[in-house]
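Figure S7 source data.
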Amino acid sequence: MASAIVYTEFGSPDVLHLIEVPDPVAARGEVVVRIEAAGANPIDAKMRSGKRPSPPITEPRPVGFDGAGIVEALGEGVDDFAVGDRVAIRDGRGTYASALAISTENLAKLPDSVTTAEGAAIGIPAGTAYQSLRSLGVSGGDVLLVHGGSGAVGQAAVQFAVAWGATVIATASPARHEQLRELGAIPVAYGDGLLDRVREAAPSAVTVGLDCAGTDEAIETSLALVADRERIATIVRGPDAASFGIRAFSGGSPVPLTDQELAWRAEALPETIALLSTGDFVVDLGPQLPLAEAAQAHELMESGAASGKIVLLP
Ligand SMILES: NC(=O)c1ccc[n+]([C@@H]2O[C@H](COP(=O)([O-])OP(=O)(O)OC[C@H]3O[C@@H](n4cnc5c(N)ncnc54)[C@H](OP(=O)(O)O)[C@@H]3O)[C@@H](O)[C@H]2O)c1
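Tokens for the predicted NAP complex:
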């Protein structure tokens, strides 16, 4: 038997339960991954709580999209992965588990130099950051404002944009400023007076705004600074983006991602692993908890009490 975290009703973190499930079986084009780490993302908690609308629950619902582990069995037609390969998982359905059957399209191999926890921490954050910056056409010469720059998506966005030659201003609480400086960003505290502080910090006009915070302040500041609304996006306020005349990438947006955007999200996983393996990308790891403590992981994530990516260990 395998074990998995599930919920049967929407609600607070304590709706999450560890149950025994039959061992997964790999269908054609799939492998079974023995999961060694699962990355917890805010979307996991939003779906569990019902804040992010999803279909009615008719059977125990698995949790988690990101993970990493070891290929344990191959389905028919799989020839690009072997039993024993270390892999990172993106867009898995139910990575809070001891094992998962998953299409090889959602996997990327992990070299020895990248840890399992790092591999489990990048699927959604790096994929979202990479796709958002590509969609916004960020390149050298841009001055990018990232709201929520100290979060998992924000830090990934800072690192990609800096690598592509942009100047990056990132909002964060003061305790995270040194960390952002080390990633190459100009940190600015969010809160009252943000607009003036960004104006003061920016070496020239801000040309792109990416909201990873979801506050009115973040959106209003981007609107005040960035001339071209096509170059302002939110990943949090999807339902409201059209009313502000800005773009949204998921985050509850009624506008689905394009095929190109989905392809960028997929491409980000091997790209990020390659950068991690050469030391050109860092993942900010937070608490690591046993899988059975998924409820505590969600409490920590929702309260903002933990800093760094929370990882669950089956
Ligand atoms: N659309 C998508 O596809 C997509 C994908 C991934 C995530 N998201 C969403 O994007 C958001 C960020 O995700 P994440 O994984 O990066 O979360 P995270 O790692 O938990 O980071 C959240 C960050 O928000 C910052 N923050 C808190 N209050 C803020 C404020 N008033 N102004 C600016 N920043 C503030 C915190 O900064 P300090 O610690 O410095 O206070 C923290 O670093 C979540 O809402 C998530 O659901 C959307």
